[in-house]
Amino acid sequence: MPYADIYWDPYPLYARARAAEGLTFIPELDSWLVSRHADAREVLRRPEDFSSANAMLADIPPSPEVLAELARGIGGGGTVVTADGDAHRRYRRPLNRGLSSGRVAALIPFIEERAQALVDSFAGDGRVELMEGYARRLPGEVIGRLFGLDEADVAFAVHGGYQAEALLFHHLGDQERLRAARDMVDLQHMLDRYARARRERPREDLCSEIVMGLAPGADELTPEQRGEVVSNLLNLLIAGHLTTAALIGTSVLHLLSDREQWELLCASPELIPAAVEEAARYDTAVQAFRRITTRPVVLAGTALPAGAQLLVAFGSANRDEARYDRPERFDITRSPARHLAFGHGVHGCPGSHLAREQVRVTLETLTTRLPGLRLSPDLPVTMVPTLMHRSPRALELTW
């Protein structure tokens, strides 16, 4: 499979890798592909052997011009995604507090209100492009509320988050990469202003939790503390918004691609929680994260030296024939089974409950308000070519 095809549709490669003995090496990614469910779980539950230090390694190395632009920013600190051991636990604690079940429950009325308002905004038109009209807007408003952002800053935060992701994981032209770097730097400075404001006047929001958790005390934040706080806020903004937007898009796409499944969901709303889990399993938003070995190890019969690069493919593990019956079939009546869409072990996604709630509310709202939804027959769906936040590029719907 040519390298580009991995990004457009990774599933054929995954299937071949699962059928092969041992691990499959992908020269273009300089990584061993961990494709089977049991092997992926093994890696994820052994962080002392499989470090997350390279988890966010950029697919495209930045040019000198991009590096010069990024030097204007505020960041460089470790994050919960790339840390191990004590450092990871330190980054994780304020996230656990900020994303507690109580705080998520308190957000649900807001999620329901905004979902209804967004549907109101296009319900009379008979047509909508769902990614821009809903899927990217609802999680953006929710993460803005969670962070404590001013309403006027939410759109810029969402835009900057997408630009930061594009800089790391999308194939862009030179000028596009430079613009993305500038937008990312501007977002860093905006988040820094919020962090310093919360230092002076803490609030009941996630921004305050991160500041207090990573920089306890009342003194002015040092440059090192500002970099660490901003790095974690930016990481959480991307993870909390883009992953959910992608999952909303793929959930609706696969339900509408199989009319029987959509009509069953409209008639049996009690299946919505199962539909959320099946959508997450079937077309995982975060397809893969990298890991690196800390010592010589053997995985799936393959001997790996210290420093070996791994690509742990959640998307492949979630379609493992040894784990699931008919895994290539999207089926909302499937008996509940654990999947790896939100990771596993110490690096399991702390915001998975919030993401699930947003997809649940979305499906409840759309099946109730617009049961006649269909994919536009004259506008075929293409996916964003990335292993990070896999989603439809656009999703044109009619009713």
From TrEMBL:
Q: Which GO terms describe its molecular function?
A: heme binding; iron ion binding; monooxygenase activity; oxidoreductase activity, acting on paired donors, with incorporation or reduction of molecular oxygen
List the Pfam families.
p450
Give the residue range of the signal peptide: none
> Which superkingdom is the protein from?
Bacteria
- Keyword Metal-binding attached: yes
Kindly indicate whether the keyword NADP belongs to this entry.
no
- What keywords sit in the KW lines? Heme, Iron, Metal-binding, Monooxygenase, Oxidoreductase
The entry assigns this protein to a family as follows: Belongs to the cytochrome P450 family.
- Name of protein: Cytochrome P450
